[in-house]
């Protein structure tokens, strides 16, 4: 088996499956990543899709990628407990090689119908995140990882993110999904050089790399400036392939490189062809690396000591601030209004450091939150 596997995000979506089918027929799709919680409310899953998952599971080439858990919600919700029960049940059937979640918390009144956004990097959020990761491990009993953010409010947040991820993952000896398009967003939006931002991440913790495309959003107060968004609705940019070429060999425990794209962006023959072409370019980079770097990683990314869960960790102040932030972002008529309301909120002069948030990124957060709300 090759040291690194070329994979794709493959979910119960006709467009995604149609795009992946030629790769399966050619025996080139070496692993698949499945967003399992997107099907929690689907009662009738086609038998052929279950057979597909089973086939990859038996070869230990199926990974689970969560979306809706909301890792940093200040208040523990019944929906989170139910999510863990469903994960445990699904994993007993398919046995994921690893399970991952998105960083951040979900906006919206129940934190399960909103946008994933950043949190302040404090001892409180660290304890909550570590508590939730231990509960995810208890449910799946396999390596657990987190994906790096595409969105941040300030350059200071960008610079702290990698170290905070490493601290979060320590109790479960977890790993990082290094999403290179997310890095591309940060590089462009905050004018930070690639080598500088890469140096901020513990690359020895990377087990998986994502590549994808995205979109541009005009900055509201500067028509010349554009904000890069991680919308997964376009082909992979040249810059992201260049990032992959410069990063892959620096991750000694890398096992998967995954191509992601949303099904609603794969509805034309041309978009499916571009997906096929992008996979081929990714595969070529992976194969070239496998020829040079033959060593097989012995890092299991399993906890080094038994995981013991006590009472659920919560924080009422964080919960109240998250709810207030959600209300502001989801209802503001402009980013100027959001900035003013934030300055009058409980988040002002707090660990959130809203005074340091860049106006363009607040505008982006408003756009993200209101899109997810709809």
Automatic annotation (TrEMBL):
Q: Which Pfam families match?
A: MbnB_TglH_ChrH
Report the domain of life of the source organism.
Bacteria
Which InterPro entries did the record assign?
A: MbnB/TglH/ChrH (IPR007801)
PANTHER family, per this entry? Answer: UPF0276 PROTEIN HI_1600
Recorded protein name is: Uncharacterized conserved protein, UPF0276 family
* Upper lineage: Bacteria, Pseudomonadati, Bacteroidota, Chitinophagia, Chitinophagales
């Amino acid at each position: 088996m090759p040291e690194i596997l070329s994979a794709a995000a493959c979910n119960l979506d006709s467009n995604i499956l149609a795009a992946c089918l030629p790769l399966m027929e050619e025996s080139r799709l070496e692993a698949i990543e499945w967003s399992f919680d997107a099907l929690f409310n689907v009662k009738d899953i086609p038998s052929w899709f279950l057979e597909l998952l089973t086939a990859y599971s038996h070869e230990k080439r199926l990974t689970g990628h969560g979306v809706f858990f909301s890792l940093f919600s200040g208040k523990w919700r019944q929906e989170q407990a139910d999510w863990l029960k469903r994960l445990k049940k699904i994993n007993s059937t398919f046995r994921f090689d690893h399970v991952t979640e998105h960083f951040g918390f979900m906006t919206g009144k129940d934190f399960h119908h909103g946008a994933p956004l950043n949190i302040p990097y404090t001892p409180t959020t660290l304890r909550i995140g570590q508590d939730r990761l231990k509960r995810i491990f208890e449910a799946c009993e396999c390596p657990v990882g987190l994906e790096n953010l595409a969105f941040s409010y300030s350059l200071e947040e960008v610079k702290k993110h990698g170290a905070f991820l490493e601290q979060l993952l320590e109790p479960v000896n977890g790993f990082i999904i290094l999403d290179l398009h997310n890095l591309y967003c940060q590089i462009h939006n905050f004018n930070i050089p690639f080598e500088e931002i890469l140096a901020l991440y513990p690359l020895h913790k990377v087990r998986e790399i994502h590549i994808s495309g995205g979109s541009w959003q005009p900055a509201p107060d500067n028509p010349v400036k554009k904000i890069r968004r991680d919308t997964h609705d376009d082909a992979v940019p040249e810059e992201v392939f260049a990032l992959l070429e410069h990063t892959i060999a620096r991750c000694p425990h890398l096992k998967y490189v995954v191509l992601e794209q949303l099904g609603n962006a794969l509805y034309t023959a041309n978009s499916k062809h571009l997906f096929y072409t992008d996979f081929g370019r990714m595969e070529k980079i992976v194969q070239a690396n496998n020829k040079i770097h033959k060593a097989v990683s012995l890092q299991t990314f399993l906890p080094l000591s038994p995981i013991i869960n006590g009472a659920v960790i919560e924080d009422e102040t964080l919960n109240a601030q998250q709810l207030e932030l959600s209300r502001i972002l989801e209802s503001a008529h402009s980013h100027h209004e959001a900035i003013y309301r934030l300055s009058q909120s409980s988040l002002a002069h707090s660990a959130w450091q809203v005074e340091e948030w860049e106006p363009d990124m607040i505008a982006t957060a408003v756009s993200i939150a209101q899109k997810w709300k709809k």
